Amino acid sequence: xxxxxxxxxxxxxxxxxxxxxxxxxxxxxxxxxxxxxxxxxxxxxxxxxxxxxxxxxxxxxxxxxxxxxxxxxxxxxxxxxxxxxxxxxxxxxxxxxxxxxxxxxxxxxxxxxxxxxxxxxxxxxxxxxxxxxxxxxxxxxxxxxxxxxxxxxxxxxxxxxxxxxxxxxxxxxxxxxxxxxxxxxxxxxxxxxxxxxxxxxxxxxxxxxxxxxxxxxxxxxxxxxxxxxxxxxxxxxxxxxxxxxxxxxxxxxxxxxxxxxxxxxxxxxxxxxxxxxxxxxxxxxxxxxxxxxxxxxxxxx
Length: 301
Description:
The chain is an alpha+beta fold.
């Protein structure tokens, strides 16, 4: 079944199709076994391999939320999308919301989805970005910075460097990507004053046009745990250590130099200790190799 869908041209993956596959396979282990079997056959082209990853990603996202299974309408996901779409009249905004990652949609309110879609749409040109700043609803002196741009190499490292250049301390970060290359990076930063929007805009644009920020000289002295079993097709990196200004920039720049692709990041700082988790892969979307794992450990220790 998965082999047949991956070979279909043009590839059309709908939420209904993904839910039907999830209902058929029932559990993440079965999905991963099917994926491994297809990879073992070694008869997929590079494009078909990427198509397979897209299908499996969608199925695993549904299986990660049991309330979406055995439902003919994908109620929670579709209800959230419909609620957001009723708040907007622009068909481009509707399409942006409809094509957003399921895990992203389910973790944001309808109002947030509309604000984000309006920031992302239309897709920024390469080297361009749109930036928005809002006060955090959870704590004083914390600010939410949303940055919409087009995906490019080492994007998270570049944006982290931009924030570090303004002495903004990142305490949380999240990433959402779209099939057309649109990316929304959401950072929670700590600052006594609201970050200046013009300064932010300039720093972000400079980071997108320039080289990757230089990593601080000397050892990073970080603890690295590499988990190849916590995710069906990506590698999970858990990185811990003492926080300092620019640490996120240095971590993400190091990962970029190791040719590691970051798909998702959870950045957490508690009592001056960072507890970061990165979902990463190689350039083909596969788990990173033993050699790449060793490079990452050397770069971060």
